[in-house]
Amino acid sequence: MDIQGVTTICASKYFDAEQMKKLYQKGVLHVGENRVQDMLRKMDELKDLPLTWHFIGHLQTNKVKEMINRIDYLHTLDRISLAETIQKYATRVVPCFIQVNLTDESQKSGLLPENLDQFLLEIKKYDKIEIIGFMTMGKDEDVEKTDEAFKVLDELATKYQLPYRSMGMSNDYEIALKHHTTHLRIGRKFKDLLD
């Protein structure tokens, strides 16, 4: 998937290392992983490829130490305790998206919009974290709720003058494009490249 001006991240949980090598040969340069152990294993298996690694899953604080200096981007910063742990173990500045919960689903991580002012104020004291944008997820099988969530994320990024919006997956990327996404997290759609 090559969309002008948009970074398409391959959600690699759907693919093993051999398949990832084939995808790289087809032009896939950005890889996103949901689980730390899977990501570290694939990083080792694919260490000869110049891939850009995005962590796109919920990150537990006890996993930060082993992975934070190996990723290029974190898409799921959602609490101060995580920021504190990143600050403790990062040896360089980590570009981060703040995850925002815009679908009112309790099982999804992310800050509520009304808590962003305070969070952005507090995050300034951590010099190993650079906030570059916001991330959100749509609501499964609910086009209207997803459209509204992506619209709000776009508005929030504009309000806070952040350049990047990480939203849109295989089933809702067209809605995300409508609302100026800059980073798509695509999994199943990449299977077509392997056929």
Write up this protein.
- There is one protein chain.
- The protein has a single domain (7-194), classed as Alpha-Beta Barrel (TIM Barrel), CATH 3.20.20.
- An 8-stranded parallel sheet has the order 7-6-5-4-3-2-1-8.
- Strand 3, helix 3 (64-67) and strand 4 (73-77) form a beta-alpha-beta unit.
- 33% of the residues lie in helices and 19% in strands.
- It contains 7 helices and 8 strands.
- The two termini are 15 Å apart.
- The chain has 195 residues and is α/β, with parallel strands linked by helices.
Using only C-alpha atoms, the radius of gyration works out to: 16 Å
Give the CATH topology: TIM Barrel
Q: Please, what is the CATH homologous superfamily?
A: Alanine racemase
Total individual domains? 1
Q: Which secondary-structure class do the elements indicate? A: alpha/beta
Give the C-level CATH assignment: Alpha Beta
Count of discrete alpha- or pi-helical segments spanning 4 or more residues = 7
- List low-confidence stretches: none
Strand content: 15-25%
Shape descriptor reads globular
CATH architecture: Alpha-Beta Barrel
Roughly what is the average pLDDT, rounded to an integer? Answer: 95
Task: Give the distance, in angstroms, between the N- and C-terminal Cα atoms.
Answer: 15 Å
Topology as a string of helices (H) and strands (E) = EHEHEHEHEHEHEHE
**Sheet with the most strands, sense and barrel status:** 8 strands, parallel
Number of strands: 8
What is the strand arrangement across the widest sheet? 7-6-5-4-3-2-1-8
Provide the helix percentage: 25-40%
